[in-house]
Amino acid sequence: MSLAEYERKRDFRRTPEPGAAPVKKHKKAIFVVQEHHASRLHYDFRLEADGVLKSWAVPKGPSLDPSDKRLAVRVEDHPLGYAGFSGDIPEGQYGAGHVEIWDEGTYEPDSAESGVTDGIAAGRLEFTLHGKRLKGRFTLVRMRGGKGRKEDWLFIKGRDEFARPADVGEKSPATEKASPSRVKTPAAVKPKEVTLTHPGKVFFPDAGVTKGDVFAYYRRVAPRLLPYLRDRPVTLERLPEGLGDGKPHFWQKHTPPSYPDWIPRADLPSEQGKPVAYAVVNDEETLLYLVNQGTLTFHPWLLRIGNLDRPDFVLFDLDPGGVEFSDVVTAAVRLRALLKEDGVETFVKTSGQSGLHVLTPWVAEGGYDEARNWARSVAERLVEALPDKTTLEIRKAKRGGRVYVDVVQNARGHHVVPPYVVRATPGATVSAPLRWTEVTPALDPTRFNVRTMAERLRRMRRDPMTGLLA
Ligand code: MN
To answer: What is the pTM for the complete model shown?
Structure first.
């Protein structure tokens, strides 16, 4: 089977799924199981063979109980590159919904002579999986009558030392224990050095910045960045192939079980009630491991694990949306003056894209709602003071060339880019902490990028935002 059907079903300008471009086959053949929250939750089981991923959709997911035969519907071959895919397929696209990696590893067919392709043709495949969850022997058998385009198969665990009866509390593979607001730190040994793979891969074609440059940048800024990530759930913005049309670009909340045990995770319930294992970046090894996975931007929450109801700072996001940057500067300076009158200390940084972020510690009574209400009242005062230059209008078309003062991000589950992170923006710009004396009409936010920050750090011995976390 070619990848024609895979390609025909998808619009790669809209879905972040990888295209059908050939990818080098692995030294040891791999398998992957992707948890797919489509209109119906199912688990996609894929085996590498003949340069593609032979694929089955398993509605109930694999079972470790040999007597628990699971339906597996054969679907179109997927490109090898799909094995690393997790993210959100947008509404209106084929398979719309969230995809995450549930298990992955290597495998070998039990009979080397008749390969996977022969096995599929014959309707019987036996193989051994070396995954984190799925281990040992499994069989896929085609059901009789199922020779049409949608073939029904059965996915069956072999009887070996990895088999487990299903009645030990194991209902569906999605059932996992949630332990909210606690960072899991298994006694796994961290590596001394995190390996960088594909250092020459171009991440920012316009600036000629490679994955190696981004990795070196994060290693350099780690001591400054880590205090802003510590003990916070983080969403990862991943671009494993760098910037470019059709390249994968996705937000990852859940830390796949295939990531090493030494990566700390915090289980937090999602809106659907299912726990999400957020990565917690408390050390350089975790930071660099995630960078090597193609994470360009870390998006931590405004709160820390252990105090889930309360943000510890408040953000005023000044978003120019096309207006002159000097107007953003005017708004930021005025906002600072306003808060100074109230005795509130403010910190400022570039967003790394087009705006400025003004931040202040949240030390008053109350949680998110109180923090957001306070921020809104301050924003209203700012708009009153600068009605021609600022607005609280969410709709871009109605902003009338004014800077949008965004305070709605001060809400649970929302995140904010911390200082020093790289943005997925041409020029490899970063979110740069500023001294207020730098916030003048001459300020050019594009000056702060992966290439220029090292020199700035050398000159600026002290982080100008350090008081935010004090
Ligand atoms: Mn699927």
So the answer is: 0.63
